[in-house]
Design the sequence.
């Protein structure tokens, strides 16, 4: 429990803060190799291993891991890919499925006992994913609509009075080119970051008032802390799934908008 | 080009349009505020007239709402 060693010495309860996210190098001297990097590598291996065992030698009547894999595949295809990509959905399933599973496993690392660190709470990880989608989106847009056509379709949506374009085109540009990819990464990061702090806070309340400084008045507070930890862990698992879904869904939406001009 | 309301909407497109709109709106509102609020703030800095910042912010939100309304609202 890294949170315990971070407690300030003294009798007062100190809520956990940003030091939760300080990651020391695992091997001294290799500065980049920290806990989130290790967990990200581990997640990659888990996702590859899972997909391999699920889809490696598919049977007509699925059994075992293939069953679970197909549930995941169907979910991503029907809820993420098809609504935004239509008939192109199948071509993008490889990317979207890996992205969904990857982000989900990253997030799940936040509630797996002992591990307990959501990878995406270091913003560099979601930024890399969002940036890849951003580059892909522009590449596809230019490829399918032409360099001029892509920006024209983006900045000049049809059906508006002509003079107003002077004012609205910059908003479209800023929204599509800067704010959208930014929020794509930040949404995932902020949810995981905040969730991790909340879980750390409530478990520390429980630990502090029930074990460190057990007093008749403090004990009920500690019990509340434990109950809240359990409740928030459940809630956090829901958020983790939701954010993985949203991340893949927005990626599908951006890809879809690049493939076909928006209305 | 026909406006959105005149287009034939297939049932499966309906969900897509709704989701696109829902996820694009915050982005548009934020963009409008940043762009025109920022322009207003710069004007305030240069001219010393404080009122330009709130005017810019409100103009930005109004333009964004108008854009969202024209794109998705009808």
Sequence:
């Amino acid at each position: 429990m890294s949170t315990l060693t971070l407690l300030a010495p003294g009798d007062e309860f100190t809520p956990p803060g940003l030091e939760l996210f300080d990651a020391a190098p695992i091997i001294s001297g290799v500065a980049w190799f920290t806990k989130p990097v290790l967990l990200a590598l581990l997640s990659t291996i888990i996702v590859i291993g899972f997909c391999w065992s699920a889809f490696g030698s598919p049977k007509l009547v699925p059994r075992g891991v293939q069953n679970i894999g197909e549930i995941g595949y169907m979910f991503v295809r029907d809820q993420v890919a098809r609504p935004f990509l239509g008939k192109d959905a199948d071509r993008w399933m490889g990317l979207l499925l890996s992205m969904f599973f990857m982000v989900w496993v990253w997030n799940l690392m936040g509630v797996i006992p002992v591990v307990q660190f959501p990878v995406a709470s270091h913003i560099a990880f979601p930024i890399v994913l969002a940036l890849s989608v951003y580059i892909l989106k522009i590449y596809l847009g230019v490829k399918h609509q032409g360099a001029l056509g892509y920006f024209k379709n983006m900045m000049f949506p049809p059906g508006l009075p002509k003079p107003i374009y002077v004012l609205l085109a910059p908003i479209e540009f800023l929204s599509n080119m800067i704010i959208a990819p930014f929020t794509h990464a930040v949404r995932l990061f902020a949810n995981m970051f905040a969730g991790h702090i909340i879980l750390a806070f409530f478990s520390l309340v429980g630990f502090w008032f029930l074990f460190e400084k057990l007093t008749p008045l403090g004990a009920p507070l500690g019990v509340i802390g434990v109950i809240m930890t359990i409740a928030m862990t459940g809630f956090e698992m829901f958020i983790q799934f939701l954010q993985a879904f949203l991340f893949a869904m927005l990626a599908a939406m951006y890809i879809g908008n690049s493939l076909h001009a928006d209305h | 080009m026909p406006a959105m309301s005149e287009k034939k909407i297939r049932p499966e497109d309906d969900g897509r349009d709704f989701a696109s709109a829902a996820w694009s709106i915050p982005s548009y509102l934020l963009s409008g505020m940043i762009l025109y609020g920022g322009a207003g703030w710069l004007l305030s800095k240069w001219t010393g007239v404080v009122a330009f910042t709130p005017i810019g912010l409100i103009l930005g939100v109004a333009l964004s709402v108008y854009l969202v309304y024209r794109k998705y609202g009808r």
